Amino acid sequence: MKKKEVIIIAFVALLALAFLAYNYLFKKDTTYALVKDLNTDEVLLRFDINEDAYYEFEVPNGYFHVEVKDGHYHATDVDCPNHDCEGFGWMPSFGVYTPIICIPNGIIVEVENE
Questions:
Q1: Average of pLDDT values for 4-14?
Q2: Other beta carbons less than 10 A from residue 100's beta carbon
Q3: Where are the domains of the chain?
Q4: Distances in Å between the alpha carbon of 62 and those of 9, 30, 65, 74?
Q5: CA separation for the pair 62, 73 (Å, rounded)
Q6: What is the pLDDT of residues 50-61, one digit of tens each?
Q7: Would you list the DSSP string of the chain?
Q8: How much is the pLDDT for 26?
C-alpha cells in the first residue's frame, strides 16, 4: 500500500471511532416505544424498553402480546391469520428500530419520536 492509502484508511477508521464514541457518550438512557391503533392513531400503551414486561391487548382477532426483555421487544402469541408481525423478531435488531405492524389487528409498535 502507498502512504496515501494508509492515511486515508487511518482517517476513515478514526472517523468511525469518533462516531461510535459520540453515540455511546450521548446515547439516551431510556427509550420508549408506543403501541398504537392503526385506524385511530390512538396510543394504547407507552412503555420503557429497558424494563422487562409482558403486555396483552384485546384486538379484533383475539389478543396481541408484546414481550419486553433486556432492552428489546417483540410481538408474540398474536391471534391473527398470518402471524407476520411475529416474524419481525426482537427490536432493535442490529441497532435498527423497525416498526412492528399487525395489519389484521390494526396495531403498530414503534419507537417514540422525541
A1: 86
A2: 24
A3: 1-28, 31-111
A4: 55, 31, 10, 17
A5: 20
A6: 899 999 988 888
A7: --HHHHHHHHHHHHHHHHHHHHHHHS--S--EEEEEETTT--EEEEEETTS-EEEEEEETTEEEEEEEETTEEEEES--SSS-GGGGG-SBSBTTB-PPEEETTTTEEEEEPP-
A8: 65
Residue 89 Ramachandran class (φ > 0 left, ψ -120 to 50 alpha, else beta): left
Which pLDDT score, from 0 to 100, does residue 11 have? 87
Q: How far apart are CA 77 and CA 83, in angstroms?
A: 9
Confidence of residue 71 (pLDDT cuts 50, 70, 90): confident
Output the pLDDT for position 54: 96
Dihedral of the alpha carbons of 84, 87, 91, 95, in degrees to the nearest 10: -110
* Spatial contact of 57 and 63, defined as CB atoms under 8 Å apart: yes
Beta bridge partners of 66: 55, 75
Is CATH 3.40.190.10 the classification given to domain 31-111?
no
Q: State pTM to two decimals.
A: 0.69
